[in-house]
Amino acid sequence: MRFEAEYNGCFWRGVIYFLETGISEVHKSKAARCELFNVRSSTDNMNETTRGTYSRFLSYRQKRTALAAGFIVIAILCVTALRLRAQEKNPFAGDANAAKLGESQFRANCAFCHGLGARGGGRGPDLTRAQKRHGSSDSEMFRNIHDGIAGTAMPAATNGGIGVGMSDGEIWQVIAYLRSVEKKASAETAGNAAHGKELFYGTAACGTCHMVNGKGGRLGPDLSSVGGSRSFEYLVESMRNPSKRLAQGISEPLKDFSQEYETVTVVTADGTKLTGVVLNEDNFSLQMMDTREQLRLLQKDKLRSYVKSRESLMPTYDQKMLSDKDLQDLIAYLLTVGAQ
Where are the alpha helices (DSSP H) in the chain? Predict the structure, then answer.
């Protein structure tokens, strides 16, 4: 028992010695010194009171053990590096069965934010697009799912951050599924982005309510990144039938769903009528922005009337207001901006 404890202790001290001094130092010194970590004793918030160090010489047999241990550690590190490099590509690429399993994982863990078909939801972007904002390669997608994306609502897939959590293999299966539903840019998305920008700030008057890269109005959602997170079909529907699916605004950690851009009409205590969009609300108060882009904080019990509607303030851009060609140019502009 004593020999085993001594052997194991010297084994790990030898590994540390090997990594710190290198192989050459082991061969140069017949009396290789093995220093243990300083033993520190402290309680509560008291200063260090004692320190002890000691050393002793390794025998020839123990030196051989330390050298062998060092080689093992280096070999493990090399194998790990090779394994990580080998995972730059999805091991399930092109595997239809893996993609099917990945779809199940996606529905359980990802669909709440990205939609059942991965075409975007309230919080998450459209993942069927070939070019993705935070990386399009297999390794980048794996990293984004596994580790999450800092500064966004995308959590890590480990430790229950996403749904029930996923193993590395399950993440690769999800990526296989996403590749199976991925679409290349179609001809319908082609358009004149320069003309679309002119329409946005001109005759279509989108810039009156919407902002792109700091320019435009504040009443509607900021559209700077919508072209990189929503599908072409979603953008068409938002223009042709804006009330069908209201855009989402403020997202709070304690709320399961983001606040939607619902229309609200109130009459204050002095008889002033205000119309605008809901920014936030609780049982007692309402935060809204009126059509003049004035922020209002109102107490509900002091209002004469308070009516919410899911009829969007955004006008319906039918064929008379915006032709298919102009609509295509307008969306081309948003796609171009969103890809930047």
Answer: 2-21, 23-28, 60-86, 96-109, 111-114, 138-147, 168-181, 193-201, 226-229, 232-240, 324-338
